[in-house]
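User: Working on a comparison across species. This one is proline dehydrogenase from Aeribacillus alveayuensis. Can you predict its structure so I can line it up against the others?
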Amino acid sequence: MFETISKNFFMALSQSKTLNKAARKWGLKFGASQVVAGETIESAIEAVKKLNEKGLVATLDHLGEFVTSREEAMEATDYCIKTLEAISISGVKSGLSVKLTQLGLDIDKQFCVDNMKKILETAKKYNIFVRIDMEDYSHCQVTLDILRELRETYNNVGTVIQAYLFRAYQDVKDLKGVPLRLVKGAYKESPEVAYQDKKDVDENYLKIIKEHLFSGSYTAIATHDHNIIAKVKEFVKEHNIPNSQFEFQMLYGFRTELQLSLVKEGYKVRIYIPFGNDWFGYFMRRLAERPQNVAFAFRGFFSK
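Assistant: Here's the predicted structure for proline dehydrogenase from Aeribacillus alveayuensis:
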């Protein structure tokens, strides 16, 4: 009961434009600095370097939500391009993650597509992979439509499929051959479109992981759930699926010991590294996911 109330509370906070705006003035407080790698490209690159030294690779994500003007979207596009340039210049092992709403999707679809093409042209030049992050259900279909359009020209782009959605399995089948990041899902969705019970989500998550691996497609398994990870290990061993066909992914600041243990076992592990001053929505969703994260945040706040 408490877990449900806690999740609903933090999900509601994550969607508050007023609090999101205020948070930009606060800076990285309330424990957010433990899970967000600073506010600048330089701080993000330094975080990647430290992870690379430990055998981990990364994906950088310049945080941003509630973009309502073309100017903001163009600024976000330019910042993504600068981030790609910084990745190339520094020589770190990292990809880039982007949100289509940050690039103007809610303003004009073609405007957003044009911005994505600018990013992908730069990424292609530097041989960097770009992941289109999946947002809430209302943006799901249009995100996949844009992905298919972009894949006609660029092969250095993929997206995310969320296991809690009923449509996830069919989407994975339809996207055979496309590098996918498979997650359980972090938004609050209606019972009409998404599983509400953790057991059902977990079952569907394993189902879509196995489907994508079986199809021979590159699969990014993004989870901190050691039970899921153990089952994936068993599955790939049983079916002789090479380690080169998949990777485990985790979030910056979470389960660092598990990350390193997987590297020692010979698995590729990628860390999703968010950065920037628009951190509030991301942080609230992390608090909503697990009650333990709330204690984690308060420890960070009071240790300041």
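For your comparison, note: The beta strands are 57-62, 94-98, 130-132, 157-162, 180-183, 219-222, 246-251, 269-275.

User: Helpful, thanks.
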